[in-house]
Amino acid sequence: MKENEASSVLLGLLDHFLEVAIFEVGLSENTLDNYKRDLKDYILYLIERGVDSFNKVNFPLIIEYLIHLQKKGLSARSVARHLSALRGFHKFLYEEHITQNNPLEGVETPKLTKKLPTFLTEGEVEKILDCARKVSSPTKERDLAILELFYSCGLRVSELANLSLPDIILSERVLRIRGKGRKVRIVPIGNVAMELLSDWLNIRNAKKVTCSNVFVSVRGKPLSRVAVWHVVKRYATLAGLGDRVSPHTFRHSFATHLLNRGADLRAVQELLGHASISTTQIYTHVSVDRIFNAHKIAHPRA
What's the burial of 82, exposed, middle or buried (CB within 10 Å: 0-12/13-18/19+)? Predict the structure, then answer.
């Protein structure tokens, strides 16, 4: 493959990764800019060494790149940031079946201060939903169902966008979710979400939509992740919370509120579809209400 062609292919995969990062993971604009710059430098480094496929990347080559960064005078924190970006990128390539292996699997990023997830209070969630209930829009029922499913089920944006009719098991009031790495999990549907989803399905069925996607545009086409993201941002902005909210904020809120109300950490792990309990444990740091309530109820001198 010629250098220009390799550059186009590899940088194209970077664009795909960044799209997922902003719309699904909900990275901040600053973090996204850092990822884009760091990963572009990494890809250009690979191309200069004749690497035209990420399948040709191995761990020694990544170590060589990190040493290259150190020789350029980057601080340990900056190198750790680059490594974090590389871990996320190669994990994405592997889970999307773009590469056959992940050269950084099991490699830990040096421990730095971990940013706690942004979440909404129960009142703020209700404020956003209230705005959606009051608005006059031809997509009102669809949008309400989207917002409530995010909060009720803790879905990733890609999971909601890809949700199909066979994934809804109404008789058991559950969703069959295909998550990262194509792993399937079962998630219960709350009463409010069930009612709003049923309302939307009745409207959707009347449209005689031909695709199997649950959520579609006014023209009956599947909603993209970007379109779903814009639905969430629209109502968050109306509620005066636009700068803080993405689909992933609802997922963080879902987990935090469950733990605050006494849910078992392992159960929350299963509901979120986390492969490791350590990923879920970060929510224990933000569940302050749960700690104070437990102390108030259980301690003899509270």
Answer: buried
User: What is the distance between the alpha carbons of residues 290 and 261, in angstroms, rounded to a whole number?
Assistant: 6
Tell me the pLDDT tens digit for each residue of 53-96.
Answer: 999 999 889 888 988 898 888 887 888 888 888 988 999 899 88
Which of the residues are catalytic? Answer: 156, 180, 248, 251, 274, 283
Q: Phi and psi dihedrals of 156, rounded to 5? A: -80, 160
Taking only the tens place, the pLDDT of each residue in 139-152 is: 999 999 999 999 99
* Out of 33-37, 89-93, 134-138, 292-296, least confident range: 292-296
Q: How far apart are CA 265 and CA 12, in angstroms?
A: 38
- Number of C-alpha atoms within 13 angstroms, CB side, residue 222? 13
Question: In 1-16, which positions are buried (b, 16+ CB within 10 angstroms) versus exposed (e)?
Answer: eeeeebbeebeebbee
